[in-house]
Specification:
single chain; about 675 residues; alpha/beta; TIM Barrel; 3 domains; five-stranded antiparallel β-sheet; signal; transmembrane; transmembrane helix; membrane
C-alpha cells in the first residue's frame, strides 16, 4: 500500500474514533432528553380569576376544574401597587387623605413630627397584619423606607415588627387585627409615581388558593433599581414560605441585580431550591449568567402572546404549544384562556382547551406534571478535543479529493495545534468554530465525492442520494458531540454560525464544480484549474444565472431559523400541520421538496457541464439542511433523526416523480423549438 493510501486510511480511522467519541456524548444527551418527559401546565392567576368572574363561580372551584383537566400550576406575577388595590386587600391614600378620613374618630396626634405619618406620605391601609408586614418588608428590601402603624384609641401607633412571622401562603399565627378598629397603615415617603410598576410581593390569599386546589405555584419577580444583597434577601425571604413553589421567573428584560449582584441572586435562588425560568423568544439580561451559577437549573417556558389569541384558533394554539414541548425541550407551557366569537360559556371552552392540550401532549409521549430541569450535561475537554480531530480529518480528506496532497499533512498539523490552543483558552468559541467547520466540510465532501459527469439509472440515483446523505451525517454526529451540553440544549449558549453554515458550502461547491465544468477540468491541480477559470470571459448568461441564484439564496436564508424573516403562508402552515399530524415529526420542506429531489435528478443526468450548476446548488440545499437539522441543539435528538429520515424517503419519492416530469418537459420543449425552427425555415 502506498504512503498516500496509508495516510488516507489513517484519516478515516481518526474520523471513526472521533465519531465514536461524539456518539458517546450524544448518548448522554439522548438519555437526558428521554428521561425528562413531564411538562408543567400553568395558567396566570388573574386569568383564572377572570374566568371565574365570567362564569359566576368561585376562583377555587375553577382551579379545581382546571386541575382535573391537567393543569398543574398557577402563574403569579408580582403585584404592583394598583394590583394590590384592585385585589381588595388594601386601600392606598396619602397621609393628608388619611388624616381627613379619620380626624373625627381616631385623633390626629400621629400626623406630625419625626417618625409620624406625614401628609405627603403614601399610605397602604389594610385590616390584615400579614399584608401590612409583607408590604413593609418588600418596600425596605427595595430600598424604600416604610413604617407600620396600628389604629389605637389615641391615634395611630407605630408597630414593633418581628423579624419573621407566619408563612407567605396564608395568614400567619396571630394575624388578629391590631387595635380596636382593626386597621393597619404602612406609610412611606415614596410618592405614588415612584411606587408605580414596582413589585410589592404576592398576595397571601391568592397563593393560598392554589395550595387549597392542590396546584403548584410559579412566581414572577419584578426587577427594581438599586439592588443590594440585603434587599435581595428581604425580597426572597417570603418566597421560601410559599407552599408548593415550582419555579421562579423574572419580569422584564433585566434580572434584579444584573450585572454585579448575580452571585447574591444565585444564593437566594439556591435557598428556594427551585429552577429559574427561561421565557422562550424573550431574552433577559443576566439570565445566562444566573443559569451558569445555578448549574443550568433552568426550565424553558413557552407562552402564546395574548395578542395571538385573536389570530389563532384553539386547535392552532394546541399545535403550537405541543410543538414547543415536543420539539424544543420546553417543559413549562403558560396557557392563556381563549375567547371565541359567539361563545357563551368561556369556562367550558377553556376546560376543553386544556384537556385537549393534555391529550395532545400524551400522544407525543409527554405527561403533564411537576417538571424538572434537564440534567446537567458537560463534556470534558479531552473528549471535545478528540471529536474536533474528526472534523480536521474530514477537512483533510476533502483536500485530498481536490488534489491537495503535498501540503496536506502540514495543514493537518497546523489545524491540530490551532484547535488545541483555542480549546484551551476559549472553549466556547472553539466549539462553535469547529461545529461550523463540520457543517461546511461534510456536505461539500459528500457531494464532491458523489456527483459524476455521466448520468445513471433511477435506481442508481436513489442509491447515490442515500449514500451522499450517509456521508453527510458523520458531520452532523461530530457537531452534536461538540455541542452536547445542557447550556446549548437550553439555548443559554448559542451556535452562532447557522447562516454561514448555509452560505459557505454553497460557495465552495460553486467554485469546485465551476472548475470541474471547464474543458479539460481533469488536467492540472486545483490552483491550475482555478487559474483557467479566472482567465475565461464573463458571459451575460452566467451573470443572470448568478443573480437568480443570489435571489434564491437570500430567500432561503430569510426562511431559515425558528423565527423566520419571511413567515410561511397560511396554506404552508396548514400543510406543515398535516405533515406533523401524519408523520409525528414534520420533515423539512427544503429537503423533501427541493434539495433531495433535485440532487437525485442531478445524479440521473450527471454534472455534464456548468449548465447544471444551478441544479447542483439547489440540490445541495438538502444536504446542508440535513446537517442544519442537528444544529438545533434544543430539539431532541430523536426528533431530529426522525425528521431527516422522513425528509429522505419523501425526497426520494418526489425525485422519482420529478424525473419523468422533467424528461417530458425537456422532450416537449425540444419538440416546440424544433417546430418553431421548422416554421422559420419554411417561411
Amino acid at each position: 500500500m502506498s504512503n498516500s493510501r496509508w495516510y488516507q486510511a489513517l484519516l478515516i480511522l481518526l474520523l471513526a474514533v472521533a465519531a465514536g467519541a461524539a456518539a458517546y456524548a450524544a448518548a448522554g444527551r439522548y438519555h437526558g432528553e428521554t428521561g425528562n418527559r413531564r411538562v408543567e401546565l400553568a395558567m396566570p392567576f388573574e386569568q383564572i380569576q377572570r374566568l371565574a368572574g365570567l362564569s359566576g363561580r368561585d376562583t377555587l372551584e375553577v382551579m379545581n376544574l382546571f386541575r382535573a383537566q391537567g393543569l398543574t400550576s398557577v402563574f403569579y406575577t408580582e403585584a404592583t401597587l394598583d394590583e394590590w388595590q384592585k385585589s381588595g386587600a388594601l386601600t392606598v391614600l396619602t397621609g393628608r387623605d388619611l388624616y381627613l378620613l379619620y380626624r373625627s374618630g381616631a385623633g390626629t396626634s400621629n400626623f406630625s413630627g419625626q417618625g409620624k405619618i406625614n401628609p405627603e406620605d403614601t399610605c397602604f391601609v389594610t385590616a390584615k397584619r400579614a399584608v401590612a408586614l409583607q408590604l413593609a418588608e418588600q418596600l425596605e428590601g427595595k430600598g424604600i423606607t416604610a413604617r407600620v402603624y396600628a389604629l389605637a384609641p389615641g391615634g395611630f401607633v407605630e408597630e414593633d415588627r418581628p423579624a419573621a412571622r407566619g408563612r407567605a401562603g396564608g395568614p400567619p399565627a396571630g394575624d388578629e387585627p391590631a387595635g380596636g378598629a382593626g386597621l393597619l397603615v404602612v406609610a412611606t415617603p415614596a410618592s405614588r409615581d415612584t411606587l408605580a410598576g414596582l413589585g410589592l410581593g404576592f398576595p397571601p390569599d391568592a397563593l393560598d388558593l392554589s395550595r387549597q386546589a392542590g396546584l403548584r405555584a410559579i412566581v414572577q419577580v419584578r426587577a427594581w433599581p438599586g439592588v443590594t444583597a440585603r434587599g435581595l434577601e428581604g425580597v426572597f425571604k417570603p418566597l421560601r414560605q410559599i407552599p408548593h413553589l415550582a419555579a421562579v421567573a423574572f419580569y422584564g428584560d433585566t434580572l434584579p441585580g444584573y450585572p454585579d449582584r448575580l452571585p447574591d441572586l444565585q444564593k437566594n435562588m439556591a435557598g428556594l431550591g427551585v429552577p429559574v425560568i427561561q421565557i422562550e423568544f424573550q431574552p433577559q439580561r443576566g439570565l445566562t449568567g444566573l443559569a451558569d451559577l445555578m448549574g443550568d437549573r433552568v426550565l424553558r417556558m413557552h407562552q402564546a402572546d395574548p395578542a395571538d389569541l385573536k389570530i389563532y384558533s384553539v386547535d392552532s394554539l394546541i399545535s403550537r404549544l405541543e410543538l414547543a414541548a415536543a420539539e424544543r425541550n420546553v417543559r413549562l407551557l403558560l396557557v392563556y384562556p381563549v375567547v371565541e366569537p359567539g361563545t357563551q360559556d368561556c369556562l367550558t371552552l377553556n376546560l376543553r382547551y386544556v384537556g385537549d392540550l393534555t391529550q395532545a401532549l400524551a400522544e407525543k409521549g409527554l405527561t403533564p406534571g411537576p417538571a424538572q430541569p434537564l440534567p446537567l450535561l458537560v463534556q470534558p475537554r479531552w473528549l471535545l478535543f478528540l471529536v474536533g480531530l474528526g472534523v480536521i480529518a474530514g477537512g483533510l480528506l476533502l483536500l485530498l479529493q481536490l488534489g491537495v496532497r503535498r501540503f496536506n499533512p502540514l495543514v493537518g498539523l497546523f489545524s491540530l495545534l490551532a484547535w488545541a490552543g483555542l480549546l484551551a483558552v476559549a472553549p466556547q468559541m472553539a466549539r462553535n468554530l469547529m461545529a461550523l467547520a463540520a457543517a461546511v466540510i461534510f456536505p461539500v465532501l459528500s457531494i464532491q465525492g458523489s456527483v459524476k459527469p455521466g448520468g445513471t439509472t433511477g435506481g442508481r440515483s436513489v442509491f447515490l442520494l442515500i449514500r451522499t446523505t450517509l456521508l453527510t451525517l458523520p458531520g452532523a454526529l461530530l457537531m452534536v458531540g461538540l455541542l452536547a451540553d445542557s447550556g446549548y440544549m437550553l439555548k443559554l449558549r448559542y451556535f452562532t454560525g447557522v447562516k454561514m453554515a448555509y452560505v459557505l458550502p454553497l460557495l465552495f461547491l460553486a467554485v469546485i464544480f465551476t472548475g470541474r465544468g471547464l474543458a479539460g477540468e481533469s488536467k492540472g491541480h486545483l490552483w491550475e484549474r482555478a487559474a483557467r477559470l479566472l482567465d475565461r470571459p464573463l458571459l451575460l448568461k452566467w451573470v443572470l444565472a448568478a443573480v437568480f441564484l443570489l435571489v434564491v439564496l437570500i430567500i432561503f436564508l430569510m426562511r431559515t431559523g425558528t423565527q423566520e424573516i419571511i413567515p410561511p403562508s397560511g396554506l404552508e402552515l396548514k400543510f406543515r400541520s398535516l405533515l406533523n399530524h401524519l408523520l409525528y415529526v414534520r420533515p423539512r420542506t427544503k429537503e423533501f421538496l427541493i434539495g433531495h429531489p433535485l440532487l437525485l435528478l442531478l445524479f440521473y443526468y450527471g454534472y455534464r457541464d456548468n449548465r447544471f450548476l444551478p441544479l447542483l446548488l439547489l440540490g445541495a440545499i438538502g444536504q446542508i439542511s440535513v446537517i442544519n437539522t442537528f444544529m438545533h441543539i434544543h430539539t431532541p435528538l430523536a426528533v431530529s433523526v426522525l425528521r431527516v429520515f422522513h425528509g429522505l424517503w419523501l425526497g426520494i419519492l418526489t425525485g422519482l416523480l420529478l424525473i419523468p416530469v422533467w424528461r417530458l418537459c425537456v422532450f416537449s420543449g425540444r419538440k416546440i423549438l424544433s417546430a418553431v425552427g421548422k416554421a422559420e425555415n419554411e417561411g
